[in-house]
Amino acid sequence: MRRKLFFFLSLLAAGSFFVFTAVRAANTDIVINEVGAYAASTHEWIEIWNKGNEPVDLSEWKFWEDNTNHGLKASDPIVSPGEYVVIAQVSTTFMLDYPSFAGSVFDSSWSSLNESGEEIGLKDVSGNFVEKFTYINAPNFSLQRIDPFLADYTSANWREHTNGNTVGAVNSVGAPATTTPPSSSLPPEAGKYQGEGTSPVTPPLTTPSQPSPYQGEGALILNEIYPNPPGSDIEEEFIEIKNTSTAAVDLVGWKLSDLVKSFSLSGSIGPGQIVIWKRTTTGIALNNSTKEEVKLSYGESVVDMIKYDKAPEGQSYSRVAGGKWQWSDEPTPGAENVITETDDTEIVWKINAVASAELGEMINFDAADSADPRGGVLSFAWNFGDGVFALGEEVSRAFATSGKFSVIVSATSTSGTAGSKKISIAIGPGLSIRNSAVVISEIFSDPLGLDTSEYIELYNSASSTANLSGWILRDVSGKKFILPDKTFINGGGFLVFYRLATKINLENTGDKVELLSPDSQVVDLVKFGKSEDSKSYALVGGEWKWQTPSPGRVAVASLSQIPLSNSPLIKGREAKAAKKTAKKKTASKNYKPLVAMTIEQARQAAKGTRVKIRGIVSAVAGNFGVQFFYISDPKVALGMQIYSYKKDFPDLKPGDYIEVRGERSEAGGVKRVKIKTKKDIDILATERQLKPAAVAPDEIDDEAGGALVKVAGEITEIKSNLMYLDDGAEETVIYFKKYAKIDKKKFKEGENVEVVGVLEQGKNGLQVWPRSDEDVVSFGPSPDLLKKQEQISAGQNKEKDTTEKYLTATAGGVTTLLLGFLAKARGAALKGGLKKIGALAVWIFRKKG
Fold first, then answer.
1. What span, in angstroms and rounded, lies between the C-alpha atoms of 651 and 637?
2. Other C-beta atoms within 10 Å of 648: how many?
3. How far is CA 607 from CA 666, 721, 752, 762, in A?
4. Where in the chain are all domains bearing CATH 2.60.40.1260?
5. Residues paired with residue 254 on neighbouring β-strands, in sequence order
6. Rg of the chain (C-alpha set)
7. C-beta separation of 51 from 149 below 8 A
8. Range 356-427: architecture per CATH
9. CB distance 657 to 686 below 8 Å
10. Domain 206-328 falls under CATH 2.60.40
């Protein structure tokens, strides 16, 4: 029976192992197969396909778009071999659009896919890119992949559908896809060259020599080609062949050719000899930037062939050991090939910096999110192009002179990887993006007559002129208009951009318009529903309304359009209603405009100011209370409470980058922005990194409220709803909010801890509010607490020794008396005495224990 049970358990364990490994197929089996960027907002989708022979688990994978990781959610994350699944902008909308779709639908979220092309990708559970590329333009229908086994992201392998899409089915532009790659002459190492982003230089296709009945069978091979030498290609280009045999080979009947021209060889080639034929002799002009094939043939038989997509300048393409081919920086015409190994591994750069700023404005340059594919630790050096240098993953500086500066950041890794990245920044008056007060103020989407009368209006609420050169207008379809050079908007002034110039076609059924900075940061965003005939959607007194178009002017309700009470047309109740309406519309003149500003500026703004601010969610509603949450500025240690009396918030998560529109208010010393509904909040991006600012208690600024901070020290006192933390210089109050559900029993006075939380104003000064137990990390007892514990332990041991000695002496005396009594006792008395001795012994041992 034991053997049978053991055998059964062994089978179960083995079966479990194979089931587990069945969903760990190579990540490269998953490819992006079709892009539905042409669809309207909330209807966009991406189709992916498993081209392998094993299922793949997409749990915790990410969709990469707009330099942002977007989460994926599906009830069934397993993609079977040959299965098509979809990543939908809104899964419920997709299922309504395609009710017959049978595959899994992964719910995700992004702002808008660009119809003219943008970088997208897939990341696996480890955060590694499975595929990343920039897709090509497809404004009318879906973009389809022709060959899913080919890592080619150009128009050669992608094509727009003629009249719709093939979501969930084989693409109409290519041969029927199978889960077995077609017969190919790609060498085994070719897969390592799959490109990220734009198509890189890919290794050529090679075919093995084909045996045929000619003199020198299997002896001659292509050995090196030099398609793109520096300078004149005519003089230096060559094709090289090698005789690998021990006998001379007559070249009669042999020829070299490319896709256009062929050249017949003559003479002979000695054993082991390497010979080149230059372009000046053959007339064969090898392609530099497009696909090319080079063949060595005997008669009608192709003996050897290589292919390449693009030839880097100054590099020859050389045969290496095992018949493989590699680009080399050292051409060797007529000699054995010398391969100079190059490190193709590049640092994955992610740099956060503004594209423009004003003189004297402090600017952050952040490369902390960059990564080494080899897993090493990166060190950074910055060269700002004006003689200023800095070290570190995040640096700050201000420029003292105007102009356009090229900033070069270089990085080296502990694993040996190295690289550099160049970015540009413009400095000058009116170029600050962070302090910009330019907003979208009016949209006219449905004019009478020609649609060329459509327009988008911008307004500068600041008093100074702003330079909008290079700024971008974009609608929900992804159509962009880049504002030309020398575009300025005066303080308090308007600019009107008509469709005739922008080519942006605003949808009458509803659209979204974005204003972006030159580095594609969203500055302002306006959404609107179905257009009202011949009316514009305008910012009137701080609120968006449909009204009579007013391009280039302040949009306010006209009192001349309101009948007055003394009009003979108005009687009784109508007159009273008209008075009320007139009063209400007259009051709209007193509405304060919505002013775009930073969190720092909003904290300093007067109460009642209508503000528009942006930040990263640091604490969600429910962390401290259900009527408010917090956002933080990722660049400076500042934050703001966002309050709603109705508790009406969208579904927010820590790391969401949002825009908030509301009224600056204050309660109990806490500065906040009060909103009316969740429509006052737009989610611009998700999963943004927010690092808590490490601060010392004696350095905390009274104006730094709302910031996500990190403090450390020793717990000096614990009370019912707070504790005091001392870093040796000053104490900090750590306050336990009811909704955070902090278990204070986990902490002890004298313990060293680190606390992350929101810095906020309490009754008696600033406090740090941890969001949950996870925000408090213990580093063990302090030296003082350890010493105290040792003293207590020593005192307890001494007291225990004294007690034991006393009990032992007492037991000896009592025992002597009882034994004397028993010596004289008989019968029942003897029995009773024994019981008493036993009870006494038990009592003594219990006390000693």
1. 25
2. 15
3. 7, 31, 40, 19
4. 22-197, 438-556
5. 298
6. 38
7. yes
8. Sandwich (2.60)
9. yes
10. yes
Token code pair at residue 215: 């003199």
Distances (CA, A) of 810 to 180, 748, 803, 844: 91, 40, 11, 9
Of the candidates 542, 555, 676, the one whose C-alpha atom is nearest the C-alpha of residue 609 is 542
Which DSSP letter does residue 509 get?
T
Assigned fold of 597-691: OB fold (Dihydrolipoamide Acetyltransferase, E2P) (2.40.50)
With H, G, I as helix, E, B as strand and everything else as coil, classify residue 196: strand
Q: Tell me the sheet residues that pair with 256.
A: 263, 296
Q: Which CATH number fits domain 694-781: 3.30.230.10, 3.10.350.10, 3.30.1330.60, 2.40.50.140?
A: 2.40.50.140
Q: What is the mean pLDDT of residues 539-567?
A: 64
CA 318 centroid distance within chain:
39
Q: What is the edge-to-edge ordering of all strands in the sheet holding 301-308?
A: 206-207, 301-308, 292-298, 254-257, 262-264
Residue whose C-alpha is closest to residue 295's, from 237, 323, 256:
256
What are the φ and ψ backbone dihedral angles of 502, each rounded to 5 degrees? -80, -25
pLDDT band at 179 (very low <50, low <70, confident <90, very high): very low
When pLDDT is cut at 50, 70 and 90, the band that residue 671 belongs to is very high
Unique residue bearing structure tokens 């000053």: 730
Secondary structure of 41-92 in the HEC alphabet?
A: CCCCEEEEEECCCCCEECCCCEEEECCEEEECECCCCEECCCCEEEEECCHH
Percent of the chain residues past pLDDT 90, beyond the cut: 37
How many Cβ atoms sit within 10 Å of the Cβ of residue 696?
Answer: 14
Question: Into which CATH architecture does domain 22-197 fall?
Answer: Sandwich (2.60)
> What does the block give as tokens for 52?
């392998």
Comparing C-alpha atoms, which of 503, 520, 524 is closest to residue 512?
524
Phi (first) and psi of residue 11, to 5 degrees: -60, -40
Q: What is the DSSP letter of 691?
A: P
What pLDDT, on a 0 to 100 scale, did the predictor assign at position 64? 92
Residue range(s) of every CATH 2.40.50.200 domain in the chain: 597-691
Cα separation, 665 vs 643, in Å, equals 9
Three-state secondary structure call for residue 769: strand
- Residue pair 367/351 in contact by the 8 Å Cβ criterion: yes
The pLDDT tens digits of the residues spanning 360-380 come to 888 888 898 899 998 999 999
Please give the biggest Cα pair distance in the chain. Answer: 137
Joined together, the tokens standing for residue 795 give 């005192």
The model's pLDDT over 772-794, given as tens digits with 9 standing for 90+, comes to: 999 999 888 866 666 665 665 55
Q: Are 90 and 42 spatial neighbours (Cβ–Cβ below 8 Å)?
A: yes
Q: Has residue 473 got a pLDDT over 80? A: yes
Q: What does the DSSP assignment read for 273-329?
A: -EEEEEHHHH-----SSS-EEEEEEETTEEEEEEEES---TT-EEEE-GGG-EEEES
Question: Which of the four pLDDT bands, split at 50, 70 and 90, describes residue 67?
Answer: confident
The CATH label, of 2.40.37.20, 2.60.40.1260, 3.40.50.300, 3.30.420.40, for the domain at 438-556 is 2.60.40.1260
Q: Which amino acid is at 168?
A: G
Tokens in use for 240?
Answer: 């090289």
Q: State the Cα–Cα distance between residues 346 and 60, nearest whole angstrom.
A: 25
Q: Which one, of 341, 308, 299, 331, lies nearest residue 206 by Cα? A: 308
CA 644 to chain centre: 29
Contact in structure between 109 and 653 (CB atoms under 8 Å): no
Copy the structure tokens of residue 506: 């605003």
Contact 537, 548 (CB under 8 A): no
Measured CA distances, 252 to 217, 243, 700 (Å): 13, 14, 87
CB-side exposure of 82: number of CA atoms within 13 Å? 8
What is the rounded CA–CA span in Å between residue 552 and residue 685?
32
Burial (0-12, 13-18, 19+ Cβ within 10 Å), 188: exposed
Most confident of 58-67, 216-225, 441-450, 821-830: 58-67
